[in-house]
Amino acid sequence: MDQLWLARAQFTSTTIFHFFFVPLSIGLVFMVAIMETMYVVKKNEVYKKMAKFWGHLFLINFAVGVVTGIIQEFQFGMNWSEYSRFVGDVFGAPLAIEALLAFFMESTFVGLWIFGWERFSKKLHLACIWLVSLGTTLSAVWILTANSFMQVPVGFAVKNGRAEMNDFLALLGNGQLWAEFPHVFTGALCTAAFFVAGISAYNLLKKRHINFYKRSMKFAIVIGLIGSIGIALTGHTQAQYLVKTQPMKMAAAEGIWENTPDPAPWSAFALINTDKQTNSFELNIPYALSFLSYSKFNGSLKGMKTLQNEYSAKYDSIVGEGTNYIPPVKTTYWSFRLMVGFGVAMILLSLIGFYLWRKNRLDQSSIFLKFLLPAIAFPYLANTFGWIMTEVGRQPWTVFGLMTTADSISPNVPAGALLFSIIMYLLIFTLLAGVMVYLIVREVKKGPEIPNAAPLDGSTDPFKKVGA
Amino acid sequence: MELSELWFVLIGVVFIGFFFLEGFDYGVGMSTRFVARNQQERTIMVNTIGPFWDANEVWLLTGGGAIFAAFPHWYATMFSGYYLPLLAVLLCLIGRGVSFEFRRKINNHRWTNIWDWVIFIGSLLPPFLLGVLFTSMLKGMPIQQDMNMSAGFTDYINIYSLWGGLTVTLLCLLHGLDFLTLKTDGEIRQRTAAVAKKVTLAVLGALVVFVILSWMMTDIFQVHLIPELILIAAIVLVYILAYAFIAKKREGLAFTMTGLGLAFTVSAIFVGLFPRVMISSINKAFDLTVYNASSGAYSLKVMTIVAVTILPFVLAYTVWSYYIFRKRVTHKEHLTY
Fold first, then answer.
1. B245 contacts: CB under 8 Å, gap ≥ 6
2. Antiparallel, parallel or unpaired: β A266-273 and A397-399
3. How many C-beta atoms lie closer than 10 Å to residue B16's C-beta?
4. Rounded CA gap, A234 and B57, in Å?
5. What's the average pLDDT block by block, 10 residues per block, for chain A (468 residues)?
6. H or E segment at B107?
7. A425 to chain B nearest CA, in Å?
């Protein structure tokens, strides 16, 4: 295990783990804000109960999301110091702005929201949760501004051996950002929708608080429909942008070695042989890739072999001759398909839910309800595979066309320190995940009629049976 | 003033904000074991910082982000060079952060006690480690010509850095105690004030030793003699005043003094560094300075505009949130955490 491998393993594991919590926070606080708005507008206590209950689960998740996020900001300097030196001028700015604009907002107003139920007027309290929602969303915008620079670097010039910013507005207007952000945001909506739907379904099956969970389910179906159709549309925009900006990633995601015919078929299944650079078996859907890439039923795509030659001519002067510009093909190909697969499943489930709602059979179809509990995992898997495709598919680059991953690591951090920190993070993360799932399950079992916290004297012990 | 110099000052201001605010919630976290006698008292103490600690911690993230954006070389050298201490800080902040949320999610004495220990350790170690980090930065670290630092154990850990860590920890503890006298009532308030008086004396003692060690171990008095002497005089003065105010039950003023004490201490460190941001113990020529470690002029200009626009809003709603929760916290009311 060399330093590069360890640094990458650390980034992959800590970022994936962090991103289990982020989309749920962004999506769920948005839903809670809508629920509380309904309460303020319609003055119906059930919406307050909903905002409190789902807000409660949001807070547990938010706490873990915040603490696992601190690592991310430190990690660039700790493990990727050469990267930080080279791009800090451009890349550091969105991170600093994220803290200044988004982190302060979400952390201050989440405190006001938690402690302000009894203290504030209804409208002021509502404003707090909307500001938390705005803060979490702005945070996504800024970190994706940084990520978009890695995918499609703009607004800079290489001076004195470093990338220096020369156009901040270009950074903000990066086409990649506005393809990526809506996709991430709708993904977050799906995550929250399926979380609420799954928990509601579980309780409807148990016939508990039927009115409460039926209403929650309807919220989830609306948000789920908007979110899942949204991810499909925004995914399509992103794919078209990808063909233009990172054709190699697209070719790898499609397992295309040779240039495709025109019109190009979409590969639904392929057995990929990376050593021989061929696919031994392919199952193709005609026309579909042309449509995916260009929104029309003709047009061809370049294969990885052609692109390898083109990239060589273009980038060998930067990174040296003989560089392999082809990312890990199987990982890119299959993570793309898994993401799309779970996305399609989410659209179908949302549509079925909508149909059952209209037929007024939402709490009667036990097969559908049973399916929704494991379906909580679908958006998590889709989010994760989407990011794996995005980041692994960009390899060998950290910043496309500018800097390779191998050149990015800290030269002065020994492998032992990296290994030790990975072990520590994974231990703590496993513990946190376990505690969090345990607490959420416990809150769900307690149901919406929860007191805000245990009585202060601590005289009752829940592990003791009554009368024992 | 060049923009890179301005950003050095701004980063200093952010760290003053961090120690002024998060300093007291670290101190409160430490007090849960030094001063509180039972879980009910710990709960009251934790709730005094309940609405604030998360936003206070953002000052550290903002400081890190600002160093990254304005001085990429400083960020890269410091964060990769101080790998293990920063790892420890991160682990503490992770544990501490979830503990506030988790501690009373289950109504069980042992469950709460476990998370309270995490809060205690997570509040004790970060100021100590950050103190060690800043002190060893003043002394100089083995930074090579390529700006990379490969520090051994004795580079981080020596008498000077340990004393610096201890001093910063005491400053935060005292600041937290004074915050508690301001935010609690009855018996806890009196007991905290009594402890605060003793700790103020300890702080003064620790500071004197720290100044002597700094005279011996660093070059900050050669570089900036007059400003450093003025700052040290100011620091000693505010802590003497802090003692007097606590004795006279003027808790708001005492808290202001310990806050100023932290602000002046951070200033003394930043003044001592200037114009360097990282001092090389190998060769003066390898020092990272505000001039050779900074971002380009364009980037700094953009960041200045952004900071000047957003920071007033942040300060405004921060002050507002403290105003909203200005009342003393007692067991008679509903406690959220």
1. B251, B253, B254, B257
2. unpaired
3. 22
4. 35
5. 91 94 96 96 93 94 90 93 95 94 94 90 95 96 96 93 93 95 97 96 92 94 96 94 94 92 89 89 89 89 93 90 92 95 96 93 88 95 96 94 93 93 94 92 83 44 39
6. none
7. 8
Residue A89's identity, in one-letter code, is: D
Distance CA A71, CA A19 (A): 12
Give the global pTM. 0.92
CB–CB of B68 and A84 under 8 A?
A: yes
For B58-105, how does the pLDDT look when each residue is reduced to its tens digit (9 = 90+)?
Answer: 999 999 999 999 999 999 999 999 999 999 999 999 999 999 989 988
Search chain B and give the residue with CA nearest A79.
B80
Query: Inter-chain contact B75–A162, Cβ cutoff 8 Å?
Result: no
Q: Where are the domains of chain A?
A: 190-411
Cα–Cα dist A153/A150, whole Å: 6
| CB B329, CB B47: distance < 8 Å | yes
And the tokens for A427? 């231990």
Task: Determine, for residues A63 and B102 on separate chains, whether the beta-carbon distance falls below 8 Å.
Answer: yes
Phi-psi region of A164 (alpha: psi -120 to 50; beta: other; left: phi over 0): beta
Residue A22: which of A130, A183, A114, A136 has the closest Cα? A136
> Which structure tokens are listed for B113?
């006690």
pLDDT at B308: 93
φ, ψ of residue A18 in degrees (nearest 5): -55, -40
CB B138 within 8 A of CB B48: no
A165, closest residue in chain B (CA to CA): B299
Q: Give A387 to chain B, closest Cα distance, Å.
A: 23
Joined tokens for residue A60: 């547990």
Best B13, B68, B112, B148 member to test A by mutation, with max A CBs in 10 Å, is: B68
* The amino acid at B201: L
Would you call B311 and A98 a contact, using CB atoms and an 8 Å cutoff? no
CB contact at 8 A, B30 and B125: no
CA distance B159 to A403: 42
- pLDDT by residue (tens digit) across B178-199? 999 999 999 999 999 999 999 9
* Amino acid, res. B270: F
* C-alpha distances out from residue B99 to A120, A157, A436, B229, Å: 26, 45, 11, 41
Task: With CA atoms as reference, report the closest residue to B207 among B169, B152, B156, B154.
Answer: B169
Euclidean distance between CA atoms B153 and B158, whole angstroms: 9
Cβ contact, residue pair A114, B336, below 8 Å:
yes
What single-letter DSSP state applies at residue A95? H
Q: Are B44 and B335 in contact (CB under 8 A)?
A: yes
ipTM: 0.91
Which residue among B39, B61, B91 sits closest to A428, beta carbon to beta carbon? B91
**Nearest residue on chain B to A64, alpha-carbon basis:** B98
A70 vs B61: CB contact, 8 Å cut-off? Answer: yes
